[in-house]
Design goal:
2 copies of one chain form a homodimer.
Chain A: E1 28-30, E2 35-37, E3 45-59, E4 65-71, E5 76-77, E6 88-101, H1 102-106, H2 112-138, H3 141-156, E7 158-160, E8 163-167, H4 172-179, H5 183-195, E9 199-203, E10 206-209, H6 212-220
Antiparallel strand pairs in A: 1-6, 2-6, 3-4, 3-5, 3-6, 7-8, 8-10, 9-10
Chain A binds a DNA duplex (30 and 30 nucleotides) through helix 5.
Chain lengths: 224, 224
DNA sequence: CGTGGTTTTGATAATAGTCAACACGAGTGG
DNA sequence: CCACTCGTGTTGACTATTATCAAAACCACG
């Protein structure tokens, strides 16, 4: 999951398995904190997230980290390049995953429909990453955080009355490393949004959007 | 072309057409300043750059721009998402392009080898973009500019004696929008590198790398 | 030679980062 | 059941990096 301006109406779309014919019994279950794969591992499987949340990260030698994406239900993770993984992937919320053989993507043998679906997922990934470039390269801290909350609200927010409740299973540092900020800046920005009445912070991992339109404005850079 | 730490030995690799059997006569030639496609256009063709340089850009409503990539010989541009282009693409240096039907990527009918090759290119694209995330999100101005020069030297630099000469057909503003900086910062950073003797600026569009190892150090963040 | 666009340089401002202290909360063990 | 502790988050003070605005220099081109 990348952060862009919410565009398509994806709000709480049901998690449709890529190919419904796949038997349920080869689902994979993973606990919080466990790793799905590491950078450099050979790729044998791709995974579609069915429940839970994953975190994909890349590290620089000196410890600087970039969170590449969060894997939410519906997302496909594990696209290979040259046959290898180029990120680490671990579990933020206990997850259920539907594995697909790498060969289903790369040679498509046996299941043309699955092959097509995985290819389309890869192409969507490219497009989503392009949007994310814009955010990393050109948006201010407030715009980044507001965009992040907008997209999460759109994808996994719970309507509660007029408001929308978002669960943030990741730590502030994860959000920071995803948006190209520091923990402190993410924290300060949330405080600022709270003081303006745009959001309410129910607890560290739960945020309520009080003024969705204001948040959207902020995500787009309407200076105010 | 994205900017990462030069890793594979790609230096001046010959431009190998994806499938050598493709007849030369359906090459496309484009002049400087012409557009190959626009954001929102339906995708009918992908293109492999054979000669010349392309520029892929995305715009925000308020005019902020992100250069997504530069298309150098060997690169494939035009991957669709949902059937449409998600960037503009125009020509920085007169270019020769090898077109491939979108169906060659998406349905693969008729030419499995081409289908595979285009898919692998898409997967490499995803990996390269992940590297670029790290740069946009986590690197300083000097690291960004040094990385940019390193990759260009690696891919298209001309050895001239001990030094390496790089042609920069794009304007400073393009480099800035690619790296998430301003024109002024790019210019100042180049000046700084010149004053340190790491590079020499032959003219606005030609840079000579005097201390490749120092440049590489700087690109990795060895603080100095 | 002008002329217009680009680049460089300078002065200043703003944003986000750094470092440090404190607050909060979950879990532990007395 | 209550401190205690550790990891995380928040806040504050200050700094640094990069952006902004403006002017001068440079270059390409007619």
């Amino acid at each position: 999951m990348y952060v862009t301006i919410p565009s398509e109406n994806t709000r709480n779309r049901p998690v449709t398995p890529i190919v419904s014919a796949v038997a349920k019994n080869n689902e994979t279950h993973l606990k919080v904190g466990s790793y799905l794969f590491f950078e450099g591992d050979p790729v044998d499987w791709l995974f579609q997230v069915k429940t839970g949340v994953l975190r994909l990260t890349r590290l620089l030698e000196d410890g600087r980290r970039q969170v590449i994406a969060f894997g939410y239900p519906g997302d496909i993770v594990g696209f290979p390049s040259g046959g290898y993984h180029h990120t680490d992937c671990d579990v933020l919320v206990d997850a259920t995953l539907q594995p697909y053989r790498r060969t289903a993507l790369e040679s498509g043998d046996g299941d043309p429909e699955l092959h097509r679906a995985l290819l389309q997922a890869a192409l969507r990934e490219i497009s989503a990453m392009q949007d994310h470039f814009m955010m990393l390269g050109r948006k201010s801290a407030v715009e980044k955080v507001a965009s992040f909350l907008c997209v999460l609200a759109d994808r996994v927010g719970d309507a509660c009355g007029v408001d929308c409740k978002i669960d943030l299973p990741m730590r502030r540092g994860d959000i920071a490393d995803f948006l190209g900020l520091t923990t402190e800046t993410v924290s300060r920005t949330l405080t600022q949004l709270r003081k303006r009445g745009v959001i309410a912070v129910e607890n560290i991992h739960t945020i309520i959007i009080r003024k969705p339109s204001a948040l959207l404005e902020l995500s787009l850079g309407s200076d105010d």
